[in-house]
């Protein structure tokens, strides 16, 4: 019995020390450093708008997609994650169904539908679309809102980010920011 206690005691002490080190101290240090150096990102990159009456309203995260389906808004990528193979019959049917939705939603637009409007992102919550996908929607948004297409394009351009370090990734348009700007909130 004494031998068993002698063996278990160091394991329990190690467990307790590692719990305090990794579960408490490390977590507190990382949280504290992130709050000091990157408070906006650490708190979810929430877009907060100052309203005319002086109050603030939170509209969502700039990092997580919001669903828009009204014609006066820029519409983002389909949400939801699937483990479908890009060449599977199920994926082809899903893409075809989304293509048909776009054609019914905006029958005047006969241009090719950009792929990011009919395929979900890997995360299923991508807040960005390609500049091509945004351009595809400019005419519909301008007509619905009764504003010039150039005004819509200028707003889209304002919320388009370039490649990281000039060569990593692709340019991207933040859908939520564009829609808030279209509503005059940003």
UniProtKB/TrEMBL annotation:
Keywords: ATP-binding, Cell membrane, Ion transport, Membrane, Nucleotide-binding, Potassium, Potassium transport, Transmembrane, Transmembrane helix, Transport
Gene Ontology MF: a single term: ATP binding
Presence of the UniProt keyword Ion transport in the record: yes
Bilayer disposition of the protein: Single-pass membrane protein
Subcellular location: Cell membrane
Entry's family note: Belongs to the KdpC family.
Name of the protein described by the UniProt record: Potassium-transporting ATPase KdpC subunit
Source organism per UniProt: Hydrogenoanaerobacterium saccharovorans
């Amino acid at each position: 019995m004494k031998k068993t206690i002698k063996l278990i005691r160091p394991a329990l002490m190690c467990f307790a020390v590692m719990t305090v080190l990794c579960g408490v101290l490390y977590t507190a240090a990382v949280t504290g450093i992130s709050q000091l150096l990157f408070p906006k990102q650490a708190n979810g990159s929430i877009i907060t708008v100052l309203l005319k009456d002086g109050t603030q309203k939170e509209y969502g995260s700039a990092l997580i997609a919001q669903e828009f389906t009204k014609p006066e808004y820029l519409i983002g990528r389909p949400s939801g994650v699937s483990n479908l193979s890009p060449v599977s019959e199920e994926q082809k049917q899903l893409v075809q169904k989304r293509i048909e939705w776009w054609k019914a939603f905006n029958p005047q637009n006969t241009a090719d539908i950009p792929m990011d409007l009919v395929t979900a992102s890997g995360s299923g919550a991508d807040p960005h679309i390609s500049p091509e996908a945004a351009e595809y929607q400019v005419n519909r948004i301008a007509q619905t809102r009764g504003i010039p297409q150039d005004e819509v394009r200028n707003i889209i351009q304002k919320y388009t980010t370039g490649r990281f370090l000039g060569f990593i990734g692709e340019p991207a348009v933040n859908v939520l920011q564009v829609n808030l700007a279209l509503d005059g909130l940003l």
